[in-house]
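User: Hi! I'm a student and our assignment asks us to look at how structure tokens line up with a sequence. Could you show me two examples?

Assistant: Happy to help. In each example below, the sequence comes first and the structure tokens follow. Example one:
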Amino acid sequence: MSAFQPYALCISSSYEKYEKKYLAIVVAKIVCYDFNSKKFGEINEVKSDAIEVGRRIKEIRTNLGYSMSQFGELISNSPKTTVNNWERGINLPKEGKLKKIALLGKTTTNELLYGSPEEFIRKIVVDHFRLQLNPLFIQQIILFLNQQKINLYDEMAIIEFIQGIFDSGSFIEEESSYLSYSPVIGYDNLYTASEKKNEEIGAPIFYVYIERERNRAHYVPFTFLEHQKEKLRSLPVLKSQLEIDYYTRQFPLLDVELKKSMILCYGIKKDDTAIIARYEYDNQKKSYSINKKIDAIDIYDPFKVELDKTVAFFDRKH
């Protein structure tokens, strides 16, 4: 795979202006990929997540107000135990039954198996390219694929298309900085985060602890020097795509999934008391919502201890 700067394709300080130009650039530049000459209609064997399929089946059943037994009767007289196994992700319905379930749920078998086109493409990009693309950029990809009449669930067609975008080198509008994560030797799940721009990495800004099983990332400033007190007080907003990208661009490398992620930031308020802000990703709004009420179970204790030490230090200084 050739070298590229993929996030420069979808991040700009004036994203709306960039978004209007995007499709025109794609049409003009990706002329080397003759989609009409490729057989993109066939769906490749993409592994579906049985647990997620089960969750979707249960959602369809409960939305319709059926018990497992009633639902099973509609699906070729399947017994309750079979429906239960589907919903628990133990096994998947056969093709004919999948079609009936999709019909009841007013969806498609592809969406039942793989989620929405956005989820499917996001998974491909994470698994194949190890990247977390901007959600708005994915929407633009879908729009163009639809225009080209390319199956949105054809894995190889999508990989070739995205690779073609990257290989074209035509989308780098402006460089944007982001956090680059480096593991701390001798400590599990602990990283330093440094700002990276134009391939240059600065000094560490944060310590970051990753809870992979809970899809969470904890941030505490790297040092607690007196002259850095303002940094401790500058909690992120995480509303704009640019700021979200700054923190999450390398989340795939940390095995953190954006759409289910939570970020916790440890800082100090203006009255020199500790504050821990919790940000939960809203997949509908494509941004984080902040909640400053934190349960004890959410806190990473070593970071809280360091934060309390810093507050005590500032108190002694005054």
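Example two works the same way, sequence first and then tokens:
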Amino acid sequence: MHDPFALLGLPRDADERAIKRAYAQRLRTTRPDDDPAGFQRLNEIYQRCLALAANPQAWRHDEDDHEGDDEAADAGAGELAVLASARSDAVAEASADAIAVAVATDAAFAAGDETPESAYWNFDIGAFIDDLLDHAQRDTPQTLERWLRGLVPLYSLQLKQALRTPVARALIESMPPPPPPQLRVAMRFFDLDGVSADGDSLQYDLQQILAKVDEVVELEREIAELRSPRTKPIDFLLMRELLGPRHWLRRLFVLLIPLLPSRLNELRLALEGDYPNAIQARLDPESVAFWQRATDRNGFDWRRLLIAPLRIPLYYAATMAFLAALTMSAAPFQKLGYHSLLLAVAVLGWTLSSTAIPRIARYFERKHGWDPALLHSAVLIACGLAASPWWPVAAIALFVVVGLAWTAPRPMLKQGLPAVLAMATGAIAVFVNGLALQNGESASTPVLIATGLYAGAVPILHDVFHAWRKRISLYEARRRLGGFWWLVAAHVLASTTFPAWIPLLRD
């Protein structure tokens, strides 16, 4: 029978500590991944030495019974088994206390004992997982892998298999998670880097965590690029504003410069689209909320309404200063505050109306089925009538533009052209009859305004009447020919006959 102590390079009276030290030295050259058979043989020798060191009588008994028959003694020795057992709650939770590994001594088997002696050693899962997470956070991937490979208990394949679930749960629940390279090392070491045949959900969760960690790393890389000296100063400023903390001078600068709020919002949306899982934890919530409301064109938030009163006085003052420098006169600065206030109020009113009108139009469309274009056209015509005493030419042009815009959905040649002819003949009819009512004198301002108003209102009135008569939607009526040719004929008739009848009616 071969001397197991000699195979480890030890004397027969070596104690347990010396056996373990010699075994650890041999493991450096005999690894289970590289030489499974050699590792199994080395493990058998190690276990036999431990058993003989703990019970010297077994060594002498083995020599007496098997002297001269080494092969029979070797063949009769039972295989050594390392049995990893853990309580079910220890597997379910990463805070389990220990796994007891029982090593049956082949000396007891050789003695024919039905209840072999067992040597137990304990592996503390909680301490190991704490060490693993600590090494994963502070070590390089190479250092982490060397540390894992240097743990002698983990040479047991059964123990590694038993540790898969606690390690996986610990990696999933760790906050913050380990960096991607270190996480991959731990997953590869415990065979958690692929999807198993039984569809292990923990492996899937780990892959999801790894994807999120990769996303965080990519996000940090892009943020570093945007904050580096190589990037544009504007992008650097906008990134600082999104990351926070709030700085009022920086925010005021972004508000005052045209297009910067929209550019900041586009940068935020691009980051949210590329990194949906990681961006919310990285950006400053207050800054994100502020710029979301400030750039929302459908909202009545004070942040958006604040932009116009802040910008207009500054721009107007800068323009007047430029004119004063050109003319070498202080005249442009006269009533600077009054004009700035008027412009700010006008722009604020435009902002409010451009937000309110679409919302009201959507309400009537949802509740009553009205076409939003009807409300928009009505508002514009009302604005033209309100401005006509001061700016009659602009009001007339606005009426005509509204009418042409209303007919835009129609094909130009087949349906759009009759609508335009109806507008033109209608304007002529109103103008001619207005001159007749004034005894052939030059047309007054009310006549001109009435001419433009009727020209713009003709297609709108026609489509509203046509939709009501045919019981169709206004949206559909705007895309049909309808009775525009009848309107053209009626306008021509009114232009040629009514002026002749008006003097007779006066007489």
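Here is something you could point out in your write-up. The first helix runs from residue 4 to 7.
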